[in-house]
Amino acid sequence: MTTVAVIDYGMGNLRSVCKAIEHVAPTVTVKLVTDAEGMRSADRIVFPGQGAIAGCVSALTRQGLLDALEDVVHNKPFLGICLGLQALYESSEEGGGTRGLGILPGVVKRFPDDMKDAVTGERLKVPHMGWNQVHQVNDHPLWAGIPQDSRFYFVHSYFADTSDRSYVAGITEYQLRFTSAAAHENIFAVQFHPEKSQHVGLKLLENFVNWDGSVQSRV
Q: Over its length of 219 residues, how does the chain's per-residue pLDDT go in tens digits?
């Protein structure tokens, strides 16, 4: 039986992620894991979370999960959600500068406080919270069955910025354009919350559970 490990390092509402995966894949075993062996023995890895990157990396290190994470991220189907996307990059502006895991090229930046709506001129709020469109920029298996420019649910003050477009799978605009989905080999990571994004989010989770980790596979 397929096992999906949801990494529990004490940050974020992880139960909602587990419940969403169980809903779309009732025959799959979903486990919250807090140890390296639980990660290494699973078939698929989900790295969710909310909060600060510094706290995330510190918690992973404290629980002995960092080495295991850097191992499985290269050899198992891997889904990052929200902070689980941001932590994959090289660094973040958060806290005056914080080192990330360096798995994806790029940096994480804070939305400017002076952003304005291009149409109304009204000031845009930070954090970026609510529904927004995701424009798919490639034909990745995890987009299967999800219409172009579907709306997903976001809650974040920081965003991923990269000059290497080959790692970008989806983009979103909130005055500026940012990476809302990233992909590389067996890794797929999103800034939005699929577990809160109704049928399109559930479809993405279903696609992940059935994905073999290859960019050529179709689910």
A: 899 999 998 887 789 999 999 999 999 999 999 999 999 999 999 999 888 888 888 888 888 898 899 889 989 999 999 999 999 999 999 888 888 999 999 999 999 999 988 888 889 999 999 999 999 999 999 999 999 999 999 999 999 999 899 999 999 999 999 999 999 999 999 999 999 999 999 999 999 999 999 876 544
Positions marked active-site: 82, 193, 195
CATH of the domain at 106: 3.40.50.880
Domain-embedded: residue 216: no
DSSP state of 116: B
CA distances 84 to 78, 117, 164, 193, Å, are 10, 28, 19, 11
How many domains, the chain?
1
Match 């689910």 to its residue by tokens: 219
In a domain? residue 10? yes
pTM of the model: 0.95
